[in-house]
Design brief:
single chain; about 260 residues; alpha+beta; Porin; 5 helices
Length: about 260
């Protein structure tokens, strides 16, 4: 069992590195390849979208198993590694499925970027020690959160359908006590934020004890954002792929750990 899990992790990491590296390798044959211009255009048009997609990698709206009470989830790749963005996703079952009533779960997620937090702490320390004004006037923050309701009904003994509403938010904020640009004295805050209310639905199939294969899609009501996810999970490990058709990176492979209660 341990060897098979180790092989799965190694294979997943190799595929993930390949997906994120194939485009840069193609750049060797051209000075400005078309994909680079396309990605730059997407980022400049909506810089918050990349942050929002990384935030979405940390979410999990799959229902709690019917025989469990809760699940705690931690996204390892690509959120914690390499972006130092830890977050916890908690789902709690509040109502069991009964006849015409669906199972109802509540979901909450919160995260803060550790690198940005460390930078803010270093700036505070510099200010207390009488450091230069180039650092003590800056207060950065990068955080995100999600809240959702999950409704689930059985289609068969091992297959369930789930759906619900979800609100997601991510914010990168940098505050200055005075403008860093002399020609723009009123520039005291840099803020990149994005929020969206989604309707999501999906299918879950149980393949063994605490082992599931799921697929789901979500549609944003405000910005018409569309995304999809496929996941294979064991008692503690999740491997999957998020798909963002309009994102800088269309495919986001991910790896996560979870604990059932």
């Amino acid at each position: 069992m341990k060897k098979s899990i180790f092989r799965a992790i190694v294979t997943f990491c190799v595929l993930a590195v390949a997906l994120f590296s194939v485009r840069p390798l193609c750049a060797e044959s051209a000075s400005i390849p078309p994909w680079a211009l396309e990605m730059a255009t997407k980022f400049l048009d909506n810089p918050a979208d990349l942050l929002f997609n990384l935030h979405s990698d940390m979410e999990d709206s799959v229902p709690v198993p019917s025989y469990r009470r809760a699940q705690l989830r931690f996204n390892f790749f690509p959120s914690f590694i390499p972006f130092a963005w830890p977050a916890l996703n908690l789902k709690v079952k509040v109502l069991n499925e009964k006849e015409y009533w669906p199972q109802i779960d509540i979901q909450g997620q919160y995260g803060q970027n550790a690198t940005v937090m460390a930078a803010a702490s270093m700036m505070d320390s510099s200010k207390k020690d009488g450091g230069s004004s180039s650092t003590d006037t800056v207060k950065p923050a990068l955080y995100d959160y999600t809240a959702a309701l999950i409704f689930t009904k059985k289609l068969s003994d091992k297959t369930r359908v789930f759906f619900g509403p979800k609100y997601s938010y991510v914010n990168l904020q940098i505050k200055f006590s005075e403008s860093p640009i002399k020609d723009i004295p009123g520039f005291t805050e840099f803020n990149v934020a994005q929020s969206e209310t989604f309707l999501f639905w999906g299918l879950e199939h149980q393949t063994g004890k605490d082992r599931f294969v799921t697929s789901q899609v979500a549609y944003g009501l405000q910005y018409k954002k569309l995304m999809a996810r496929i996941t294979a999970s064991s008692p503690h490990l999740e491997l999957g792929m998020n798909i963002y058709p309009e994102g800088m990176f269309v495919l986001h492979p991910f790896m996560a750990w979870h604990w059932y209660f």
